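If it is no trouble, might I ask you for a protein's amino acid sequence along with its backbone structure tokens?
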Amino acid sequence: MRRSVGYTEKYYRAEGSRRKKTIRPVAQCAILVLAICVLTGAAAPRVRLTCITNKVVIVDTPTGSSSSNAQENLNFWIEEASKGVLLADGVPLSIQRFDDRWISATGGGVSYEFDRGSRNLTFAGTIMKQGTATIIIGSGKCTVESDAR
């Protein structure tokens, strides 16, 4: 190996002749930049989804039915790198679809659909317990914030 102006030359013996391998500073810099980009992409931040929703709950029992309407704030964490969604308390949801347009997930008997373009959230679910059916339906508008970890 010998040192020359601006780059290092390494010589290898191959089939009786000398072959030269050159690593230039520009190539070294490009490799370093590529490595930094790959490492930073792997540590992509989480996104916090805050949704103000209108929720209707219908309770159907053997003795009769009742319903209620309430405004509810729902919070989620979206992890782009792992394609995961967590409720605000850290409970993971089961993912059905996760792409640039939609996120579909379920948890606790409720299915959630988030339209990334319009930032609308819809959800619905049915829970059966001891002869009582509880039906939950709701929708709302969400705001998206990056996690400042």
In short: Residues 46-146 form one domain. The two ends are 46 Å apart (CA to CA). DSSP finds one helix and eleven strands in the chain. Residues 25-42 form the longest helix (18 residues).
